[in-house]
Every structure is written in structure tokens, then in C-alpha cells.
Specification:
With 132 residues, the chain is of the alpha+beta class. 20% of the residues lie in helices and 45% in strands. The radius of gyration is 14 Å and the shape is globular.
Length: 132
């Protein structure tokens, strides 16, 4: 899991894919990743469409690219963690978000990534897979 965290911290914009109400894929840039209590977490706002999509269909995909010809693909379940301490732990990793979110603002929410598979890929090496 630390390998995944390090990759996403080093390549801070990744793409998160969800499914909308009609079953259509929706992809958007994302940028939060934190480790809390041994799990990876992402953060968003309750008012955002992505939040509603993850609550309705928790299976998500993440894709990130590095500057060395490699990429990372993740499949996981996004599970809402409504604890204040979880929200605060993620916000502590991203001080720039604290002007838009607070752990107790009623809008900030965090999702733990569970049942995950991460595949590190490149054109020059065999894929390397990690489960978490």
C-alpha cells in the first residue's frame, strides 16, 4: 500500500472513474490520497456528483501516469468513513483544501479504498500488481 501512496503522492493528479445513475462511466481529475489507520483514503464534498456516484456504486477505478513512461491502474471499493478523525487526517495532508473544506463543515467526506488491486505498468517492464 505504501508503494501506491508514494506513486500517487509523486504524481498528484490522477483520474477517478465512477458510474452514473444511467450506468455511464464518468471520469474526472482528482488529487487527494492519504493513509489513515492502514487504509488509503480519498476526499471530496458531499454536494458533488462524484460523491453521490460512489455512494450508489462504490466500485471505482483510478488511473495515474508518471513522467517516466509508467502508469498505475487501481480498482477498489470506495467506502464512506463518516468519522471526524478520518476527515481531519486527510485534510491534514492537504492544507490547501482547508480553505474550501473543514472536517466538521457538513460537506467534507472521505472514502476508504477497500478490496483494491493496483497494477503498476510500463512499456519496458512486466506489470506489477499489489492487492490491498
Amino acid at each position: 500500500m505504501d508503494e501506491i501512496l508514494a506513486y500517487l503522492k509523486n504524481n498528484p493528479t490522477y483520474f477517478l472513474a465512477t458510474v452514473d445513475e444511467q450506468g455511464n462511466p464518468q471520469v474526472r481529475p482528482f488529487g487527494t490520497i492519504a493513509k489513515f489507520e492502514g487504509r488509503l483514503y480519498i476526499q471530496t464534498g458531499k454536494v458533488k456528483t462524484v460523491s453521490h456516484q460512489m455512494l450508489a456504486h462504490p466500485r471505482i477505478a483510478i488511473s495515474a501516469v508518471d513522467n517516466e513512461g509508467g502508469w498505475l491502474r487501481i480498482e477498489a471499493d470506495a467506502v464512506l468513513d463518516d468519522r471526524l478523525e478520518a476527515r481531519q487526517a486527510v485534510l491534514d495532508e492537504y492544507p490547501n483544501l482547508q480553505s474550501m473544506y473543514a472536517a466538521d463543515d457538513g460537506n467534507c467526506e472521505v472514502f476508504a479504498l477497500k478490496n483494491g488491486t493496483a497494477t503498476f505498468c510500463s512499456f519496458t517492464a512486466e506489470p506489477h500488481t499489489v492487492t490491498f
